[in-house]
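W.,

You were right to be curious about this one. When I first looked at the sequence I had no strong expectations either way, so I just let the prediction run and decided to look at it fresh. Below is the sequence, 439 residues in total, followed by the output.
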Amino acid sequence: MTRTKPLLLSGVVSAALAAGLLYAPGAEAANWFELQGISPAKAPLFGVSGFIEPTIWVQPGTEDGLLHEVPHINLVGPDFSQGTTAGILRARIMFRGNLNPNISYFVAGEFGNNGYTHVRSGYQPGLIDGHVTFSYIPGARVEVGLIRAPSSEGAMQGFMTYNYVISSTVINQLMNQPMLNSAYISKDSPAGYLIPGTEKLGVNGYRYPGAMIFDWFRSGPWEFTYGAMVGMYGTVAAGNQSNEPMEAVRLQEAYILGGKGPFRSDIQGGIWYQHAVPRFDGANYDMNRYGADLQYLQGYMHPWGRQFRFEYMRGNGWIDAPAAFNKADLKQAALYQTQLYPGIGNKAWGYMVEGGLFLTKNIEVNLRYDYYNRLPNNPAQNRIFKTYALGLQYHFTPLTKVMAGYYFRTLDVPHPNATSESVASAVDNVFALQAMIAF
């Protein structure tokens, strides 16, 4: 088998890439398994890179009409104390290189203020990537460590291809699960488990400790890629919480139109599946996620360059619902604590469709529609989130840009009560501005 030559450093990139050296003569195009798994064949033993994302959120912070409190959805995470704020959403430093031609390593720390670093209601920087990849076996590269698990294309993207400040609701809620203290002895509520903020261990950033086998195969413009992982469901950020098994697999086929790296021109489709058995309150629960996606990308940073993405996903078992409010002095605990529905009969599904167009080499406009139907099996808890997002980007380099987005949000409650109807009617639209600066 003839291997393709890796071009970029990963969804997080090398100093040479950050300096603008996107393409190497003769190198073949890459995909996310390649970018996030291995270093270029000629990469040095040690390299440093990173990025920061200063961000501004502006929303009215409208109170609901019944309790006269600002709903959780109208406040900015991860602490949900304000509706309008500024901060560093992500700040990452990365180290990677080749120990020899067949062994690559990658380690990254996250220092921004986001769900990954918000552990037990406090700020805690953490290791967000840390793995070694062995490329000795033709057709089966082996990656071991803290790995971005194969799943939806949107969950596998690197930072340089983010087109919006606010992530897709369906991808974020179904795939970027909040980790919970598995030893917490909770009290059952009529709706499920109620989880206080002190028992939430942050989100996992789509990453799990484990081992993955992956590779890609080229035949002319066609490229087939697979990735299969076994690991532990949980988080390394809060200690020994990686407690139960998980499996994940993704298969994808691409027709390459040209270009290299994460901005190559292609038509790509993928299918994926994840299964985990998280443990909580002394019991194990099945959690399934699966979906399909399609994308078309052509002409990145070229006038009339364009993109189209579609993702569909479903989940059953282990569906969580963030708290409606943030204040602990409300009378009903269900209003200010996360609700967890772990049984296999609980369901959620949704989709995301997105388009983008470069008006000039530097200016790109984007449009996204996001739909998430949470717990349709439970009429009292069923919620439907719909968001239209308008985006405008100015690209200084392929890795450094400014993004502005306006998000038209609605929350539908098919079977409302007085409180849920009041919260739904108060949901704000959001304006967000972010700079993405690579070094």
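Here's what jumped out at me. Residues 15-438 form a domain with the Porin fold (CATH 2.40.160.10). And, maybe more interesting for your project: The first helix runs from residue 15 to 18.

Coffee later to discuss?

I.
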